[in-house]
Design a protein that fits this description.
Number of strands: 14
Distance between the termini: 73 Å
Radius of gyration: 25 Å
Number of domains: 2
CATH architecture of the largest domain: Alpha-Beta Complex
Strand content: 15-25%
CATH superfamily of the largest domain: Argininosuccinate synthetase, chain A, domain 2
Helix content: 40-55%
Shape: elongated
Length: 407
Amino acid sequence: MSKIKKVVLAYSGGLDTSVILKWLEDEYQCEVVTFTADLGQGMEEVEPARAKAEGYGIKEIYIENLQEEFVRDFVFPMFRSNAIYEGEYLLGTSIARPLISKRLIEIANETGADAISHGATGKGNDQVRFELGAYALKPGVQVIAPWREWDLNSREKLLAYAEAHGIPVEMKRGKASPYSMDANLLHISYEGGILEDPWAEPEEDMWRWSVSPEAAPDEPTYIELTYQKGDIVAIDGNEMTPAEVLTYLNDVAGKNGIGRLDIVENRYVGMKSRGCYETPGGTVMLKAHRAIESITLDREVAHLKDELMPRYASLVYNGYWWSPERKMLQEMIDASQEVVNGVVRMKLYKGNVIVAGRQSDTDSLFDESIATFEDDEGAYNQQDAEGFIKLNALRLRIAAGKGRSDL
């Protein structure tokens, strides 16, 4: 413990990391550098972190707007794979962690810090994600994970510690613990409180980014998304940066009641966990990306991507973004996206994301002259199908002849 002279803390300014800041100073007798990443959670959360750190006498405070890097280098590459964990989760928290780990290590190198620290609990996935990323980028780094060391093992104890040390706590509801929330441009997550009972329905006033489908407009909203190499580059003909794309989609989709999710997921550390998520823009992006791929990707390429996607999603969820296997998969996925160019028209209506049209002037493999049920003028010889079917049926006929039929 005495060897730690300076530590870089991933600091949100919330209850956990505010307590950790004070605890690090007292327990390790070390200098603390705070790092707050603005990933789109809102200035109302970012700026108070600066004020709090200054109030605690922190000399080196890093507040960085990483929104463009986050969407460009992490969210967009992940969505090229159509990644979704356990059939539902769009990995909003998971994909933010490798970027935070990267900056923690870079800041540690810049400031000469001996260690990094984070506020992830010993029961969750984030401790794994932060630390796998840190070790991949700086093998010898020391990591301090207070939740695995101290005895402040409940929200109530944290609140008591905060009160004893004069640490302000927002959203304090009497003696009740506030929700544990995490937000970035891709999503906002909710855990704790009544959500720890998987039978309890979330309170309506918990949701922040979306209206309920029942309260959404009675008229649908249409938008057109322009794709280049698998990424959205314009909406309704207006060119946008990656962060601008996601910001716009979050707004328009949230207003249409899109993106709410309530799931029980399997954490990497072994337990089941119930969480609620709002991912309005990401929900639209996933549907639209599959739509543009449906006309531009070769069948076997598309099917291979679908087979590999669960593996890719698990790598992101479990914290292996910086692993060689994720990088290998990414290179293959990105190669497939060279032809994913065109426009998708989406219809957003009361919680539903509907593909209303898709086209690609340069890379579409959809040939109406072949697919038509009308006269195809010789583009496809239907008699060829007879031999195709018989060849594919050969092994089935042989097996049936040996008495292996189900009849």
